[in-house]
Amino acid sequence: xxxxxxxxxxxxxxxxxxxxxxxxxxxxxxxxxxxxxxxxxxxxxxxxxxxxxxxxxxxxxxxxxxxxxxxxxxxxxxxxxxxxxxxxxxxxxxxxxxxxxxxxxxxxxxxxxxxxxxxxxxxxxxxxxxxxxxxxxxxxxxxxxxxxxxxxxxxxxxxxxxxxxxxxxxxxxxxxxxxxxxxxxxxxxxxxxxxxxxxxxxxxxxxxxxxxx
Length: 213
Ligand code: AP5
Ligand code: MG
Prior knowledge:
5 strands, binds BIS(adenosine)-5'-pentaphosphate
């Protein structure tokens, strides 16, 4: 009898697991407004915001082993290795926020390899992505924003124009290919990030609402 009901139970559990969780990626070049929008979207949709950059900066501040490894790379505008980024995500979703409605992933994935492994992680959990938001902003505008932010927050990777340019170069070379990957999956939501913060947010919500129904 149990053997008869088990397949139905599995399909039932899988269906609700897939439809309950909402996972959204927000991507775009350095300074495009990912963090600014992710905080507001998390609040609006009742999701948990995870910024791999924030986790790494926190580790650097606390001088943990992860922080020591990360600092050498981040301060020069280079990425941390994929396995570090992936283990941050895994720990955050499984150990720190197991009962959440879903996540806004800010600055992750950042390489095609991270995207492939992330797909497997979600598949193993019977979950899927709802959308991949791309904030597109001209380089001149993001540079101006980062230089202004440097005066307020003092992030070492904003401190010098050469490092800012290096981050932008790596974004175009290494991260941008993931846009086509998610476009092919029908998940791409393209947003002009050059408008005001309020306009960007309302456009994202308008487009996401149609997908999250
Ligand atoms: P991360 O912290 O993700 O940095 P980033 O991608 O360079 O992006 P930023 O945080 O600089 O910008 P943002 O897009 O969040 O914009 P924000 O909202 O702040 O990563 C840092 C580093 O960590 C990486 O370089 C890498 O080394 C490492 N790392 C992180 N994730 C990794 C991963 N998965 N794999 C490997 N390595 C990883 O806005 C910018 C400024 O503009 C702010 O001052 C804001 O107030 C302002 N602003 C925002 N929106 C607007 C608007 N619409 N109009 C005017 N101003 C605006
Ligand atoms: Mg950010």
